[in-house]
């Protein structure tokens, strides 16, 4: 197992955002986290990346208990995420945005120092080369010098994924990557996530686009009012009465 969520709960004052949720993700899987608004999905991402600590329970990554570990340490261990609302450096080029993502894993102050050592220049060249490869992967190489704010919405979403990949994650958390995308953009997002999987990266995805989720995911957990309502293959989830009742609705 790459990630094990063990009896995790999170309370915000009187709100039980998550209650005793457990699930495990296998190496190389695309695992979906779905459920109605306010079900606790983003809170789960915030606990995995330790934006907040769980009120109780444990988060285990590659057999190591990472509960409460500092967020940057979690990134170093190999977990990276995108956000529900795009968080790019809008005044930086697409290329620089991805380089910054890679920089979060590197040691020296490449971007902060004016007087760079030879080693730092070499490191920056490597970051640039890696960023260019990632921009090719997400189909944005031609746009590498454009400011992030001048990219189309779907392109910005793909740029966020490239930036997350720059830190060479073993586990990629995607928070509603298809939100606001048109059909064509969603199709190319599907292809991209499949390519990411083929590179051996495990993916945990929160998404409301059900056709995409059902086509993409190997397994899915459904959250409802902070509790795990069901877990299974897309077929099992689509045919689960409780899930249909609470979230999917009848055709
Ligand atoms: P959506 O699909 O709308 O993004 P979600 O499933 O991601 O919803 P969360 O954002 O995790 O749901 O929210 C779960 C519950 O926890 C909600 O009731 C929300 O108001 C509450 N919550 C989340 N973060 C906080 C916080 N920082 N402070 C207080 N309450 C919070």
Automatic annotation (TrEMBL):
It comes from the Bacteria. It comes from Ureibacillus yapensis. Keywords: ATP-binding, Coiled coil, Nucleotide-binding, Transport. GO terms for biological process: D-alanine transmembrane transport; L-alanine transport; L-isoleucine import across plasma membrane; L-valine import across plasma membrane. This is ABC transporter ATP-binding protein. Signal peptide: none annotated. Residues 117-144 form a coiled coil. The keyword Coiled coil applies. GO terms for cellular component: plasma membrane. InterPro entries: AAA+_ATPase, ABC_AA/LPS_Transport, ABC_transporter-like_ATP-bd, ABC_transporter-like_CS, BCA_ABC_TP_C, P-loop_NTPase. Pfam families: ABC_tran (PF00005), BCA_ABC_TP_C (PF12399). GO terms for molecular function: ATP binding; ATP hydrolysis activity; L-isoleucine transmembrane transporter activity; L-phenylalanine transmembrane transporter activity; L-valine transmembrane transporter activity. The lineage of its organism: Bacteria, Bacillati, Bacillota, Bacilli, Bacillales. Residues 3-250 form the ABC transporter domain.
């Amino acid at each position: 197992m790459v990630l094990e969520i063990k009896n995790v709960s999170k309370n915000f004052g009187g709100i039980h955002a998550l209650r005793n949720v457990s699930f495990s993700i296998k190496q190389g899987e695309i695992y979906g986290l779905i459920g109605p608004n306010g079900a606790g999905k983003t809170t789960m991402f915030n606990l995995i990346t330790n934006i907040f600590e769980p009120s109780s329970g444990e988060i285990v990554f590659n057999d190591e208990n990472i509960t409460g570990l500092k967020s940057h340490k979690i990134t170093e261990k190999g977990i990276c995420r995108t956000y529900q609302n795009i968080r790019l450096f809008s005044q930086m080029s697409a290329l620089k945005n991805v380089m910054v993502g890679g920089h979060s894993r590197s040691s020296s102050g490449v971007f902060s120092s004016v007087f760079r050592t030879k080693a730092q220049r070499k490191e920056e060249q490597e970051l640039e080369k890696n960023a260019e490869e990632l921009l090719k992967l997400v189909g944005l190489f031609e746009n590498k010098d454009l400011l992030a704010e001048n990219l189309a919405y779907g392109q910005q979403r793909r740029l966020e994924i490239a930036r997350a990949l720059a830190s060479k994650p073993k586990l990629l958390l995607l928070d509603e990557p298809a939100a606001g995308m048109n059909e064509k953009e969603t199709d190319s997002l599907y292809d991209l996530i499949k390519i990411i999987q083929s590179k051996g990266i495990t993916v945990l995805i929160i998404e409301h686009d059900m056709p995409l989720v059902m086509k993409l995911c190997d397994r899915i957990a459904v959250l409802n009012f902070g509790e795990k309502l069901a877990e299974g293959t897309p077929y099992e989830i689509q045919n689960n009465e409780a899930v249909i009742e609470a979230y999917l609705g009848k055709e």
